[in-house]
UniProtKB/TrEMBL annotation:
It comes from the Bacteria. Keywords: Membrane, Transmembrane, Transmembrane helix. It comes from Actinopolyspora righensis. The chain crosses the membrane at residues 22-44, 85-102, 128-154, 160-180, 192-211, 239-258, 296-315, 345-369, 390-418, 430-454, 461-479, 505-525. The keyword Transmembrane helix applies. The keyword Metal-binding does not apply. This is ABC-2 type transport system permease protein.
Length: 531
């Protein structure tokens, strides 16, 4: 078939280009799921403890965040894995699929590389086919890895249930690979294609949450809902996976049909005509940086506000859980005997602070992306704008964005917790606790700036650093990681508010560290060639 000629060579090229990126995604998802599962026997070693945990599934906020809670009557480790890890892992895999597919389809056209390849012996549909085969293959490999690894990590999990659970996760990733294939034909730019696919993912998760709060009808409109309705580890049934297969096939047929009806590099949805004069958001490098990442910033902020509201909603339930769970009671006692609700909120805020480091790295990586796309050199050469001002303006946008993200988390948690506790002062206290993590987040932004200025081709190393920080933060106490290693994380030096006394010195040291890293990075950027 001439339209698919060269597909095999393009698949090999994709695997060569992403020889680090794809294994990093697979490893990251596996560590997130398997590492979390490994903690279950330690935290909940008795049937009574697990049933106390199952009682939390009655909270509407928990249902929206996790799922319908199948198997709560006999809350086994398998039911815990399916209920508490299925939804979050499915979303993570879907995001992986969206980003990988756009990277090797729409971004290739946007950069002009696809047109150069098409000048050779490459069929019209070969680039899209190669991207689809690769990303779907990654989902299948990841599903097989998780399916066989789960019973090894936790022997109480059955192999059949684990394979069904993993198949549901791979199905979600495959469906959103196909969804992204369609949005990549409709949208002219990669960011718009990612945004459209991510919006559909958010809609899918919202439908699942609304359905699980109701009679379950809306959940059948969501691929995430189909995955959870396999009822893995409970009374497993595989037929909901067929819905995902059917939708994937329909979407792929639609993607190829749309691909045949558009020109190379164009999108079927026409972009709006630009304004005759620039708006205030394009009046300088700082506002330009904000304009370029407004969609990303909006998504992160809304997500953190919603998750913060969930944290505030479950805070009061922590006290009940602690009374019924010996392990939880010991945990709260080790936290200094603090109020269990506030200790629970402080723990979640710490995790959200580390996750907010992902926003900082994504935002701080924008100058490198603009440079790689060739848009910075004409800007610096054709205007009075200096390199230092360009780099610092982008970093300023990152710092302001991180304030919005963590402030949204603290405000969401504080408002809901104040409503449930009846104490309005909790709004300010929880908001302050969330904002205390900003200096640690800024250290990661400074690290990204340093790599951008000194080793631009190694900027991806900052993501490996964040992965290590999150892993040690989540599983360090369980694995008894030495303190000298844990202390390498900037988040280890942030006072755990509101359960601890506020001490400004560590935060000032972290802020100074961020300034130092930034200064070194900007100085290096001024001296190196544009890459």
């Amino acid at each position: 078939m001439s339209t698919l000629r060269g597909t095999g060579a393009l698949i090999r090229l994709i695997l060569r280009r992403d020889r680090i990126r794809i294994p990093a995604w697979i490893l990251g998802v596996a560590v997130f799921l398997l590492g979390s599962v490994a903690t279950f026997p330690v935290a909940l070693d008795s049937a009574a403890d697990r049933q106390a945990r199952a009682a939390l599934m009655d909270n509407p906020a928990t249902v929206v965040l996790t799922g319908p809670g199948f198997g709560r009557q006999d809350y086994t480790f398998g039911a815990m894995v399916a209920n508490e890890m299925g939804g979050m892992t499915a979303v993570l895999i879907a995001l992986m699929s969206i980003l990988l597919l756009v990277r090797h389809s729409r971004h290739e056209e946007e950069s002009g590389r696809a047109e150069l390849l098409r000048a050779g012996v490459v069929g019209r549909h070969a680039p899209l086919t190669a991207a689809l085969v690769t990303v779907i293959g990654v989902n299948l490999v990841l599903g097989a890895l998780l399916g066989f690894a789960l019973p090894v990590v936790l022997p109480e999990l059955s192999t059949a249930g684990s394979l069904l659970f993993a198949a549901g996760l791979a199905m979600v990733g495959t469906v959103f690979t196909a969804v992204t294939a369609v949005t990549a034909q409709l949208m002219e730019h990669g960011r718009a294609a990612v945004g459209a696919a991510a919006s559909l993912l958010a809609l899918s998760y919202a439908l699942r949450g609304a359905g699980d709060l109701g009679d379950g009808t809306l959940s059948w409109l969501s691929p995430v809902g189909w995955s959870q309705r396999t009822r893995a580890y409970v009374d497993g049934t595989g037929w909901p996976l067929l819905l995902g297969v059917a939708l994937t096939v329909l979407l792929l047929l639609g993607a190829f049909l749309l691909r045949s009806r558009r020109d190379e590099g164009a999108g079927l949805v026409r972009g709006r005509s630009g304004r005759a004069t620039a708006s205030a958001l394009l009046s300088g490098p700082f506002t330009l940086a904000l304009r370029l990442q407004r969609g990303v910033l909006t998504g992160w902020t809304v997500g953190f506000v919603l998750f913060g509201a969930f944290v505030g909603a479950i805070g009061e339930q922590a006290a009940v859980f602690a009374r019924e769970n010996e392990t939880a009671r010991r945990y709260f006692e080790q936290a200094g005997g603090a109020d269990s609700a506030e200790t629970m909120i402080a723990t979640y805020l710490s995790l959200m602070g580390m996750v907010a480091g992902g926003f900082a790295l994504q935002s701080a990586g924008l100058p490198r992306a603009e440079e790689s796309a060739g848009r910075v050199e004409p800007l610096l050469g054709g205007t009075p704008l200096s390199r230092s001002r360009w780099a610092l303006s982008g970093l300023a946008a990152t710092l302001c964005g991180s304030v919005l993200v963590m402030g949204g988390a603290g405000l969401g948690a504080g408002l809901v917790y104040a409503g449930t506790s009846g104490d309005p002062s909790n709004v300010v206290r929880i908001l302050g606790a969330a904002l205390a993590y900003l200096p640690a987040v800024w250290v990661l932004a400074g690290l990204s700036t340093l790599l951008f200025g000194v080793l631009p081709k190694a900027t991806g190393l900052s993501w490996l650093v964040l992965t290590g920080i999150v892993f040690v933060g989540m599983f360090g106490p369980l694995l008894r990681v030495p303190d000298r290693i844990s202390d390498l994380s900037p988040f280890a030096h942030v006072p755990t508010l509101p359960t601890e006394e506020f001490t400004p010195v560590p935060l000032l040291v972290l802020a100074a560290t961020a300034v130092l890293l930034t200064a070194i990075g900007v100085a290096g950027y001024r001296r190196r060639d544009t890459a």
